[in-house]
Design a protein that fits this description.
Largest sheet: 2 strands, antiparallel
Radius of gyration: 19 Å
Number of domains: 1
Number of helices: 7
Distance between the termini: 50 Å
Helix content: 55-70%
Strand content: 5-15%
Shape: globular
């Protein structure tokens, strides 16, 4: 009799775990699309990813670049759980660069590099070293070096 009462609770726990894992996987896929330049799903504020506001393109200058940065930060914050994002992040290093708006620099490539460092997978080292050597920006070079050091510390 006791076993029968516990079965529904066990099923509920399994469903909750599955739902939570499924939600994380969906979020990961959304962030990967966002870092590739797809639709903006996340705005990153205070180390938290918030749903993107439909007004953001109207009030945020350089919204596309900021969306890519938001996704990179969120993916970096996921650490090992974001290993599926390594290839898209590395591809994005070649696609984007830091943007000088004349009001300041939007550090797109630098944030992507730092996200790779926070994820910490050694498969990103070749690309990070390559782009570090190719970069003309001291700020970008510093971000690449920091990301490389983070990965070496995790080995």
């Amino acid at each position: 009799m006791k076993i029968l009462k516990q079965i529904p609770a066990t099923i509920l726990i399994v469903l909750m775990l599955f739902t939570n894992a499924s939600a994380k996987n969906t979020r990961l896929m959304q962030l990967i699309e966002q870092v590739k330049g797809g639709s903006c799903q996340c705005e990153f504020k205070n180390d938290t990813c918030y749903p993107h506001s439909i007004l953001s393109p109207l009030i945020r200058r350089h919204n596309k670049e900021l969306c890519i940065i938001d996704a990179a930060k969120a993916l970096g914050g996921m650490g090992d759980l974001a290993k599926a994002a390594i290839v898209p992040l590395v591809e994005s290093l070649g696609k984007y660069s830091d943007v000088d708006t004349r009001d300041g620099v939007i550090a797109v490539r630098s944030e992507i590099a730092l996200a790779l460092g926070r994820i910490g997978d050694t498969s990103a080292l070749t690309a990070l070293n390559y782009y570090k050597e190719q970069s003309r920006s001291l700020a970008e070079k510093a971000a690449f070096e920091r990301a490389i050091q983070q990965i070496h510390k995790r080995k």
